[in-house]
Amino acid sequence: MNDKELKKWREAGKIAHKVLNYAKSIAKPGVPLLEIAEKVEKEVEKYGAKSAFPINLSINEVAAHSSPGHDDKSVAHGLLKIDLGVNIDGFISDTALTVDLTPEQEHKDLILAAEHALKEAIKVISPGIMLMEVGRIIQDTIATYNVAPVVNLSGHELERWKLHPGLTIPNYDNANITKLKGGMVLAIEPFATTGQGIVIDGKPSGIYKFIAKHNTRDAESRKILEFIEKEFRELPFSSRWLVKKFGTRALLSLRLLEQANALHHFKQLVEKTKAPVSQAEATVLVTKDGCEVLTKNE
Ligand code: MN
Ligand code: MN
Questions:
Q1: How far is the CA of 260 from the centre of ligand 1 (A)?
Q2: Which domains does the chain have, with CATH numbers?
């Protein structure tokens, strides 16, 4: 990684951190998720950046992959995960936090469990540490709150234009002895739950990503697929973004392109026992002797 690249990784992290705090400030009970999403994505653009993926606003037992569509009517409530990413010229940051919008603040400890686990993981991340060790620290920290990590959700490496390349960073001791190396950019994202700690597929999310070119005879779909490939490459995007650009007929094209395996349509990820899930996430750069948190202020 050269200095110019490092600067962009840092910039993407700094903006994401600021925008996440902004998102937290407007995510009050009863506010439409659509309004939050639009405001937050506009805020990203104010910094001259783009969203690396549609903002995820997942509630209660939905752990991830929930993002409002163009006509979404739901409002913020319960245990809300806010997960967003910033893209500067393909350099991506990925960060998340959880807010408790219940009147009784009943999920306070569950949120602390994920945040504390993230903090402890960051403390130990350095070249040479094994993935299983990072996972064990996350798991053990979450266990001190008498809750469980979600074992089939994990952190991941980040590369330019790539959200989930290479390594996955487990949220439990998965016996993987692969060692971290200096220069890696990682998203660390513990999820904690009072349930079993396994997520299963839920409803379609309205979040898609490009898989392959497809020679459809439908001219409109062809145009839309070309736009997607050029604009997002293989980064996730929202059906809402396409409705904005092409109108609601884009939804038909998305369906056709999904059926043709040109696009992947993500499903919501829901805790198996319908128990609430919390999440905390930061993007870090593995340095010579530790790590630098990129999703932070300065
Ligand atoms: Mn994320
Ligand atoms: Mn992530």
A1: 28
A2: 3-201+270-293 (3.90.230.10), 205-268 (1.10.10.10)
Tell which residue, 129, 134, 174, has the closest CA to residue 151: 174
Active-site residue, 156 included: yes
Give, in order, the Cα–Cα distances in Å from 93 to each of 12, 106, 211. 5, 30, 22
Q: Closest ligand to 64 CA?
A: 1
Q: Is 173 a catalytic residue?
A: no
Q: How does pLDDT run across 207-259, given as a tens digit for each residue?
A: 999 999 998 889 999 999 999 999 999 999 999 999 999 999 999 999 999 99
Bridge partners (DSSP) of residue 80 are 59, 99
If you measure from the C-alpha of residue 60 to the centroid of ligand 1, how many angstroms do you get, rounded to a whole number? 16
Give residue for tokens 């829901």. Answer: 270
Strand 168-169 relative to strand 237-238, pairing: unpaired
Ligand 1: distance of its center to the CA of 219 in Å? 34
Distance of CA 261 to the CA centre of its chain: 23
3-state DSSP assignment of residue 12: helix
pLDDT (0 to 100) of residue 139: 98
Residue 63's closest CA among 280, 217, 221? 280
The distance of Cα 26 from the centroid of its chain, to the nearest Å, equals 19
CA 94/CA 52 separation, integer angstroms: 8
